[in-house]
Prior knowledge:
The longest helix has 18 residues, at 28-45. The protein has a seven-stranded antiparallel β-sheet with strand order 3-2-4-5-6-1-7, covered by helices on one side. A five-stranded mixed beta barrel has the order 15-16-17-19-18. The chain has 502 residues and is α+β, with helices and mostly antiparallel strands. It has helices at residues 9-14, 28-45, 94-105, 139-147, 175-188, 211-217, 236-245, 324-334, 382-385, 417-424; strands at residues 2-5, 50-57, 91-93, 111-115, 121-124, 130-133, 151-154, 191-196, 203-207, 225-230, 250-255, 265-266, 288-293, 303-306, 340-348, 353-357, 367-370, 391-400, 405-409, 430-439, 442-448, 451-456, 477-486, 491-495.
Amino acid sequence: MYRITPYDPADLDAAAGGDSTFIALDSRERVAAACVAAVAGFALDSAVGEVTIDNPMAEGFFSFSVLAGSGGHGLSRLFPYGNVGFHDGARVPLATGLGLLRAMVLREGAWRRLQAENGFFVHVGDRDDIYVGGGRDQDNAVSRTRMLGLFAGRVARSPYEPALDETDAVRAADEEFWSEVGALVADRGGVLLEERPTGHAYRWHRLTEACEVAEVQERLIPRARLAVWPDLTEDVEAIRAAVVRGERLHLLVQQYPGGGFHKECVAEPGMGRADVPNPRITEGPGHRVALVPLERADRHPLLAAVLPDGDGVLRARWRTNRSRADERRTLLGSLRVGEAVTGVVATGLHDVGVYVDLDDDLGRSLGFLRVPEMSWTRFDSVDDIAPIGREVRAEIIGVDFAREQVSLSMKALQPDPWQHYADTHECGDTVSGTVTKLVPFGAFVQVEEGIEGLVHISELVDHDVEYPQEVLEGGDQVRVAILDMDRQRRRILLSLERAQPQ
């Protein structure tokens, strides 16, 4: 058994427990090509012409983020539309298997193990590590791998070998199972059938009549995991209330009129709001919705089974080992808007914001602090507030599962000087200030640190002027009268003319 990596194994071991790639973006394609060539050498030396797909996942091994990978999870170029033929136990040509390997090295989303009947196998890890074995010495393949600029060395075992899989005791979806499904449909008037053909990929079927059971059976993908849940509901308000409470992680499943389903997503508390344009949870005639528990410990379906092969034998052994992406999503689910967290600034995006490590493990670069959320007062550079390496304390203002990102705000933990100013001043008050900016329609005056108001050109003097420069210059110290304070829009209207002695 051999481990192949694009960098020195000592660096790989130093990153133990990490889940980020060390491969530079502009080198990723080159490294992927070298890895494919190296594994092809091992396979050909082992006389492998085709491989079997084992425990495929659509996403969730490397990441769940929509910003990661590529469209189609790296499968669109390898399989027909709908990824027909991509399932557990599917046998594919070696060339297709190498295409799957390339997609994994590029972290395009999907993951799976590959194995051949003669014992040859390929496992891809989450730290740019590839494990290849076959029960024989392959010194020539190792030499070629090193010529490709990769590192290859013997290891005792692969951390992804089937013997280390955690699995659930499951029943086969046999005649007895389908008879029970039919009975549930008749008794309840309808059920929701969840089909998981690969890890973290779902297809949904609503069954409302016993005759539909046989029809759905014909459309199921081989070796899929099945779960039967209570029927979808038209009680959208109850679902919205449950989403807002956010007591546990759920998948939001929505069916639109006509019977089709929207793409499922993790239910975030903000999705339960109805007082926003285009609410995420749709209501109306024919719209139905359900919440399906996501975490393994919370899942208690009415029935569960796995499709056996055509000969009736149950051969699929679905691994339930949690990936780091699973753990990261659980961490996201534990965070609540309004909570205060402490983290360390990791990297920056110039004028946009900075990424924040919320811890040294799963929380790496999980937080994002945008420039407008750093401080109530003006500052010249991000480095003045959040330089790389500085520990910061901020409030969580948003949790985005789709992007695996936590939005942070430092100023949410600071008193709002604008509101304090509005609380301690009234319209008609005369205050001192400094002219900070002249514009064609007037002048901005700073009346307190971080608080500015506008003197419209018509409020400068008691006669018409064409340009504010006729009256003021930047830096002038002035007395102005407060005309209006708009708390919602955070705007103050001032008058220079009305502050002058009569």
